[in-house]
Amino acid sequence: MDYVIGGGLAAFIIYAAKKWNKTEKEKIQHTFQNIGYVVKDKEPKLFKTHKSTTHTLYTYHVPYGLVDDPKLEVLEKVLNKPVKVSFANGKLHIKVYHSKLNNNYSYDSFESKGKWIVPIGKTYDGSVYHDFDDIPHMIVAGSTTWGKTVFLRMLMTHLIENNPNGVEFYILDLKGRLAFNRYRNLKQVKAIAGDYKESANALKKVKKSIDKDMDYLRSIDAENAKEANIPTRKFIIIDEAGELKPDKSMSDEDKEYTKKCQQILNHIARVAGQIGYKMIYGTQYPTKEILDPQIKANALARVSFRLATSVQSGVAVDQPGAEKLECKGRAIYKTVDDYIVQTPFISKKEIWERIGRYENDPSSKEDQKTRKNTVHFG
Ligand SMILES: Nc1ncnc2c1ncn2[C@@H]1O[C@H](COP(=O)(O)OP(=O)(O)OP(=O)(O)O)[C@@H](O)[C@H]1O
Ligand SMILES: [Mg+2]
């Protein structure tokens, strides 16, 4: 008698796989029961399934009283795929993405979309960009080494490449001027400050420039930079705003400088956005003391890399989640909507290949003229 070894076993494996490998739809339905996302014996009923290249969208009729519940976050672990749950038009929508985000997307995989539009990152649905002419001020939060400085440098590189003659930077590089020192030689960088006194001086220059621009706008009866056809945009970048918090160890003089800085930064946040001044406020410590309410209320774009606690996440992006971000460069980008993004990675080498030609470029006449007015502190 001949035996075919394995034949019966193969049939059993296929049978068992069918039995135990439940479909996504079945797993979701079981999860509803197991976590008690039901009303008495009534549970959500699948109403429509829509498949696309990036995701499958399941839409459910739910019993009255059920909405998008944080309990449903477990679906991400149950399905081992990224899941977005929302509740709209009386229905529950569960979007299950086919794959997770990569841990690295190179900067050159993003397009150039316009003068003041910068790439923010890849989401599950594609790339996301930010328009600084729509939303002028941005807070960039994140604990140490999760990606703030790479992100700030990437923004600068993009803005310089797109507007070599129309963008200006004032940089407060408050961790000893280590992150942006080389940028001082760029023609677009008008001031770079590494301590309190230099920061106060740099911001006083910005304040003077704002006053002048305001006078000009009033004289032509224009309300904003676009209406007045002002081509230049001025970016004030703060890399570690936490350093500007006055504390007991500071000299009285330094306390005064930090107060002056805070005062001018508040002024920029409140009045200067629409006249062409954009503030990018970076901090490791998003606490109520460091994120002044005026600045928070006016910085309507937020980018948060990983933070230590959900409380910090609440301060930075008004919602928990930043404490759970998994890898370097991963962030929550929030304006009206919020997205999980993997921000573009750019190396120092690539940055200087792209913008190195604007370092100490004495060949252009316009360049020489601007550089005369350029103030380098320290
Ligand atoms: N978008 C990104 N994609 C992949 N890796 C990244 C990304 N951004 C940063 N990294 C990695 O994380 C490291 C630290 O990043 P970065 O210097 O920007 O941190 P940081 O938040 O500024 O830290 P600190 O607060 O200490 O200054 C980088 O050297 C790089 O290896
Ligand atoms: Mg840094």
Mean pLDDT over all positions: 90
> Which class of secondary structure composition applies to the elements?
alpha/beta
Instruction: Enter the CATH topology name of the largest domain.
Output: Rossmann fold
Portion in beta strands: 15-25%
- Low-confidence blocks of residues: 1-6, 362-378
- Count of extended strands: 16
Largest sheet: 8 strands, mixed
Query: In terms of quaternary structure, what is this?
Result: single chain
Bound molecules: adenosine-5'-triphosphate, magnesium ion
Describe the structure.
By secondary structure, this protein is an alpha/beta fold. It has two domains: about 90 residues, Threonyl-tRNA Synthetase, Chain A, domain 2, CATH 3.30.980; about 270 residues, Rossmann fold, CATH 3.40.50. It is built from ten helices and 16 strands. The strands form four sheets. The protein has an eight-stranded mixed sheet, sandwiched between helices. The chain has a four-stranded antiparallel sheet with strand order 1-2-4-3. It has a two-stranded parallel ribbon with strand order 5-16. Strand 1 and strand 2 form a beta hairpin. Helix 5 packs parallel to helix 6. It is elongated, with a radius of gyration of 26 Å. The structure holds adenosine-5'-triphosphate and magnesium ion (MG). Magnesium ion binds next to helix 4.
